[in-house]
Amino acid sequence: MKICMDLEGSVEQMEQLNLVAGGELTISSGAVTVTHSLHSIDTEGDAVTDDLNTINGGSAGDVLLIGRANAARAVVLKHNAGNIKTPSGTDHELTANGFVMLKHDGSNWHVQSGNGSGYALNKLACLTVATSNITLNDTQTMNGVFCGADSRVFLAGQTDPTENGPWIVKEENPYYPNSGDWIRPDDFQDGFSVSGHLFYIESGTSYSDSVWMITNHYGEDIVGTDDLNAVNLGGGGGSAFDLSTLPEDSSRASTDYFTKHDGGRMEKIGMNDLLRDGLHTMTDGATITLNLANPERIFSVTLGGNRTLAVTNATVGDRFILKLVQDGTGSRTVTWWSTINWTGGSAPTLTTTAEKADYFEFVCWGANTFDCIRMEQNLDTSTGGSTSLSSNIVSNWELDYLIDDEFTDSVASLNLVPSASPASSMLAAGGVSGAGGAATFDGTQYLRVPVNAASPLNFEDSSFTIALWVKPDAIGTSKKYLSLGTLSIQDDGANRVSFYMPGTSKTFSGADMTTGAWQLIVCAYDSVNNLMKISRNGAAYETAAQSTGAAALSDGYLYVGSSTTPDAYYDGELDSLTIWSKALSQAEVTELYNSGSGKFYPFAS
């Protein structure tokens, strides 16, 4: 169910309201600090009137109700004098018995009304609330409060739900029959549509300083005709609304939502996300621990050596999947935790083939006792399998020649423009293949092409590979081979090549880079296994865990031979730059290197 606030001049859909009473605040030097979502405000030194310029506290998305603490003392919300904004751009005085709703945008509190008057609840404030059936006649005591003639009260538990909502109490005069019959307020007459109306409860043994709402599920609530469902939004005593009052619906749809609390606020989660087990990529190490307190129940790890497996926080009935991937070396083994009941009575031998995977599904049946109920072995992963260098190519720059002073992109027409003039000064003969040409850099130059969020190079959290051949004239100087948004491939300053992604970097630990020789660099991101990978000259990938992918591109440039500043200029030659929208497998990297001879676009067999 989505709740809509029917504000004068606008209708705003509020995904969650969880109002909690925080008591009275006193203005100090034009400011108050809120700690809850419902407060009354008093003037500084009991002044007859006082300005409120700033509301401290709160975060983006928070909803706040504030009102006067004393009907005789006026509080004025000052537009733009601090962090309070009204839609009309004018100041707003809180009414004597009313409340105003505000919403936080991350910086400022905005009064929620189309005309700037706020959503004043003076006409919707009630003396008290009754949650059990009340006879609608004469003065009486409800919820510990005497309700005299002309008191405005709120009913939430009538046997006839059409009677819920606000009423005006009348006193019975024995000389005038029916003179004590209660009446509806002027703002809540028969025929009025009242779904989403809020009511502030002033006092009572229970629910003092609480806010209630008239809600429905399938359309309007019409006074005098429809059942009126009164929901306590929070604050005061008592509990939230009774789930048993909601209609039952056994169907499931991706558009269904559930509420959850993230430790700071209420949020919604979709049906698909709620039911999805979630993938948790673990960091390789001597001991790999599966923490079953983690809500993600598909665990994956690439084994970089012989490892010991452990399980923590297991509860009877826990069910989870474990994926063990062999690295580029293969033949890795594991020591399992105790106790596991295996089909056949003993643990299976893991697949030994590099970059193949084994899957196991477990159920916890007792204290640290697990059954393996399913296993699949020797499966391909996104990093293994057959080779297909010609598929998923996003861009390719052969860098053999210039057309109209640009190095052309054979795939996406993202032509690289030299920074030098003339452009021909950045074209060298020969290249990695010994024929054609290559781009050359003198330590002050770069190539670049504009990119943005719509660019095919905007990978975000999807897989990709960048491969390029380089022949440095100098190494050990922290120079950039390529920069794209938050990604970069560079000399690490210690004669090795490094791959940088948001929050993570990986330096190839194999053979050093050398000057005067062509070398193939391959950097990839595998979004299936949340791994960034790097290889030099066809060697086995070295990996690092990286779960966020690449940051989204904004307006900028892909730079070749420098950083995005630009600076950290490369000195040397660069050839055959290709980008794929997939993570190349180890077999594809081996094929691309081709024993040092290289394989080039269009990568025909």
Describe it for me?
- The chain is an all-beta fold.
- The chain folds into four domains: 3-119, Jelly Rolls, CATH 2.60.120; 121-240, no CATH class; 279-380, Jelly Rolls, CATH 2.60.120; 393-596, Jelly Rolls (Sandwich), CATH 2.60.120.
- Helix content is 2%, strand content 39%.
- The chain is built from two helices and 48 strands.
- The longest helix has 8 residues, at 586-593.
- The chain is elongated.
- The two termini are 58 Å apart.
Radius of gyration over C-alpha positions, nearest whole angstrom: 34 Å
**Tell me, what's the shape?**
elongated
What is the helix fraction of residues, given as a range?
under 10%
Total number of distinct structural domains: 4
Largest sheet entry = 8 strands, antiparallel
Strand content: 35-45%
Number of discrete helical segments: 2
Find the count of extended strands (DSSP E, 2+ residues). Answer: 48
CATH class annotation of the largest domain: Mainly Beta
Contiguous uncertain segments of 5+ residues:
1-16, 113-123, 236-240
Q: Estimate the mean pLDDT confidence.
A: 85
CATH fold assignment of the largest domain: Jelly Rolls
What oligomeric arrangement do these chains adopt? single chain
CATH architecture of the largest domain: Sandwich
Broad structural category = mainly beta
Ends distance = 58 Å
